[in-house]
Amino acid sequence: MTAFASLRGALSTREGWAGLLSSRRFVLVLVTIVVGALALIPLFFLVWDSFKDVRIGNIFDPSLTNFTLKNFRDVAADPRAFMMLGNSFIFAFASMTVAFLFGGGIAFIVERTNAPLRNVAYGLMFIPLIMPGMIKAVAWVLLLSPQMGLLNKLWFAISGSADPVFQAYSLPAMVWVEGLSMSPLTFLMLGAALRTMDPSLEEAAYTAGSGRARVLFRITLPLMTPALAGIGLLQFVRGLETFEVPLLMGMPAGIPVFSTQIYWIVREVSPPEYGIGFIYGLTVIVLAMAGLLLYQKMMGRAGQYATVTGKGYRPRLIDIGRWRWAATGFILFFLFCAVILPFLVLLYSSFLPFYQVPSARAWSALTLQNYQELFTRPDIVMALKNTAILSSIVSVGAVLMATMVSWMVVRLRTKASRILDGLVFVPYAIPGIAMGFAFMIVFLSFPNPIYGTIWILVLCYFTSFLPTATRFTHAGVAQIKAELEEASAVSGANLLTTLRRIVIPLMLPSLVAGALYIFLLTVKVMSAAAILFTPKTIVVATMLFQLWNQGSIPQVGSLSVLIIMAGTILTIVSRKLSQRRAIVAEV
Amino acid sequence: MIKVTNLSKRFVTDRGEVKAVVGVTFDVPKGAFFTLLGPSGCGKSTTLRCLAGLEKPEQGEIIIGDTVMYSSEKGISVPPDRRDAGMVFQSYAIWPHMKVFDNVAFPLQVKSKGLNSAQIREKVKKTLELVRMEGYEDRPATQLSGGQQQRVAMARALLQEPRVLLMDEPLSNLDAKLREQMRVEVRDLVHRLGLTTVYVTHDQLEAFAMSTKIAVMFEGRIVQIGTPWEIYTQPANKFVAVADFVGLANFFEGKVVGGVGASGRGTIETTMGTLECTVPEGMSTGGKVLISARPEVVQVSREKPSGGGAIMLGEVERAIFLGEYFDVRIRIGAETVRARLGPYFEVKDGDKLYVQIAGSSCSVMRSESVASAKQ
Fold it and tell me: What residues in B contact A505, CB-CB < 8 Å?
């Protein structure tokens, strides 16, 4: 039966609209349409406009003629395009390598060696995730900048030389910061892969007479290959998509990557070169989708190798002897670079009347004024208010919608629910910057009251984070036995009552954990906001960038400290509620 | 009260299509305790879930009271919340986030029947008394034992005063002792309330002890409907009579050699001798039959007994002492007969014994009905 017939059928009963809303099929169709529209309409506009000559004043051409390959030719003729492509790949690959060095190294130490204090690493490795990319980038510029960077100043003081050793506005520095930033998730994923490996596979090799090194290279590493390749690929894709670090550290040095190039030609250049933007946007989406599909395939292979999923099977720990403390030192070094150092720099700057390197004069001038300004300066107040509204609506809305989606995907298991399951993951493969650009084009194409308001941001972030929300809610629904819902139905409750009284209360811990996680994500991720923001819809991520450009470094500091504090509280609450390492939603 | 006609339900799984229920037809009169009995995967639970509206069949008709709940022909499918059926689930399905009171009161809370909260409280109290759980209203559901959860699930199903009560293996998760006790309790309670009940189980003892009527199901079909006594003494085919399912039985092939009269009794020649038995209707001389004799009706003696029936001499192949009785396998020519001997008979392997089977305690099935049961 079609949606229309079920609509008519439901409306003919005496419950009318209430009956309609409690008809499973109707709700399924409705949710599928909403999710499909949010996922596919922006994508459609991006593809359609790639073949049109679109410019300001002629933003949407619905006619079936006037198709052109002009945009592709423009890109092909632009030497910057190939430089950008090269930069993006080098940056993404190198960042992934750094992330593997730290994340993989720490995962190995924690899971497979007898290094002291390794068990607290799981708690600590979550801390770097709290810090938004923008804040990390700011902090590292303050540390590495050639003239005022604190690490360079330290070098000047030690060596007496006047030549800086570090260069913040360079590819290596970008790689360093992005690599640090990716390390915690790499650690969590590789740790999980190591943990699920059947220890008897290694033990069999030991009993067959193999030494430690041989087991590592003949058994452990080959078994880990699909997981390593998959996780590496995923981090590479994330590296292609990332925005904040290239924006702050790459743009001033003329090192464009996909995301910053799109931002540049859409928001900074006048008139904007939308045509090239479409092609860049599509390219990065295609790369991301291909990467994610390949990733899923590899993780499927990795899953076949992972024969032990229960607890109690701890693989043999390797005694690394004298190197034990060095291994612990390695973990501490990472945490120092990823969390402590950046936080201290920001904390220091947040108490200064104006930014200066530490000196007796600086120490005597410390002030709380920057914290006062957070609550008095109109633009900062507005950014905080907008962020609170945006993040609240997006987190609650996405989790509620995801609950509906998960319930249908996990429970109904019909053909339609499988389509829904596929649709809901489409935005996962669309980088934030491309998503923001696509939403911008959609809402510029026809008159509407949404463009330029906070609501376009709400829609865009909602779409982007719906897949992440379903990671929490899928697990939540799967935990509920179907009979608990069936008992409600035979007791006389309709679908909505069952969702309200049985499903949602039982899922509440996962829902709250998911909502808090997405709240934090919305605060952290800047890319879509950078494309879509107007002075009235500024949010904290864009506010930080604006303050940075104005040179208001102390205010950047106080705002960052506030965000980190709030993020820490939210993360602790969220983790207490979910209590499961399994839910690792990648950004 | 319940009329099910030609009900069919398929499932599509990864391994292809499974016919869970095939052309099932039965009637349950008002106040009856009707049991669907069969091994796991026979379609009994699916049939029950179709009655509740939790599964949608492809074909057939379900009428409860005077209401057509499902009809493939008329395109009617009433959702579960409007079928007015109480259901007890195998896992009890007690909501862990609610207290006992809310679990039981839920049906009244979601369907306003014009009751205020004091009236609801009163009804819950009375219903909990029925299942001997009075005073447990404020207990969190997570602090109940299995047996208590079972009682709360009963109370929830009874509170809405349903037209029919559906139970899906409600006792299978209880330990053996409690199960035996609850069997009687549930039957008496349902009987006292005069509820029409459809009960699903794979446990023949449970079915015999509780039901007014039993439908034996196999591979999605009903193979026999009858009272517990009929099912046991006159199994319709080898499946119903077969070992591990409805008791144990010895089977012999035979041929009707004559004497089928108005009484329905005929002479049957078997490998175990000649028997005088009640022959299935329409059976005439020359027809092939299968005879089943329960181990408890096989008479065994050391001296050659007098009297009629089939008497054969055999040798004890294996005697297993089980306390209450000896389970004995006796070899007679090419056949092996199982018998139960009292604990004081003192039989051992190799003993020579006379075996006597009375035709009146055997049941006779057509050979073709055996083939149709796919045994």
Answer: 97
